[in-house]
Amino acid sequence: MYLTEEQLSIYKAQGFLVLPEYFSRAEIEVMKAELSGLSVKDSPKRILEKDGKTVRSLHGVHTSNNVFNCLTRHPFIVEPAMQIVGSEVYIYQFKINIKAAFSGDIWKWHQDYIYWRKEDGMPKPQVVNAMCLLDDMNEFNGPLFVIPGSHREEMIDVAVHNSRETSKNVHNSSDSPGWMSSFSANLKYSLNQELITNLVSKYGIAFIKAAAGSVVFFDSNIVHASTNNISPFGRSTVIITYNSIENIPSPVVKPRPDFLVSQDYRPVIPLACDILSEHSLT
Ligand code: 6CS
Ligand code: FE
Asked: CA-based Rg of the chain, rounded to a whole angstrom?
């Protein structure tokens, strides 16, 4: 399902593109049905909110779950990703951000690429995020906020406050791994208020409002955030990050675990599979 020239130019100009209801309700229900089983397993792949019980995110589960493995290869997602990145792609990162009703916590203002550059040695931002909404995203349930066009600032090199200290604050335990501060509510490379004020006055601010089944492609340098969710409505999303096969990260001193950052550089072959087959689009 390739993007039109107009869609590609919208993506390039604003740094994100919303494709409404790409997947049918039936397909979304198939994916959502997998979440409860995946959420109960205590594993490093499962990150909890500060309350120590609400699931914040699940990482790398596509390698052991057929439904999400299928999603990562779906032509609706892979073909646009290859167009945007300009080459064949491999799956760099797979996560499900749960943003639970009443208790899904904040994602502070940040860019994604700086994490992949500084933590994983990714050479260039020749990479794209594909977010598949498993719930409706609206003004009530902690939607994705974006600063449209801010990707043109390229990587904003923010100073890191003591990341060890940051990771200790998460869950009040001293044994949080160092990478936890890249996934907690106390983000390692978050952008400060002065920066955000300047960027919003330069580019404006928007939020994504879309129904479950929609897909949002967004640039690794677009400045984005989301508030905590105080509504009775969950707002779970699957975010698949596709990196160009021409952009393989250089070795780093402390590589992050492969459930966070895949070392499987095989190009993804787009393949519609029968598990997700009642598309809303003919
Ligand atoms: O460190 C990372 O890889 C992740 N952290 C954030 C805040 N966004 C990008 C990525 O998912
Ligand atoms: Fe992010």
From this structure: 18
Ligand in nearest proximity to the CA of 93? 1
Q: Rounded distance, CA 210 to CA 20, Å?
A: 6
Mean pLDDT, each 10-residue run in order, the chain (282 residues): 95 98 94 92 92 96 95 96 98 98 97 97 98 98 98 91 45 67 90 97 98 98 98 98 98 94 96 72 44
Ligand 1 atom closest to 187 (CA): 7
Residues β-bridged to residue 216: 18, 131
Q: What is the pTM of this model?
A: 0.93
SS3 83: helix
Atom of ligand 1 nearest to the CA of 188: 7
Structure tokens at 282: 């003919």
Residues near ion ligand 2 (Cβ under 5 Å) = 112
Nearest CA owner, ligand 1 atom 3:
115
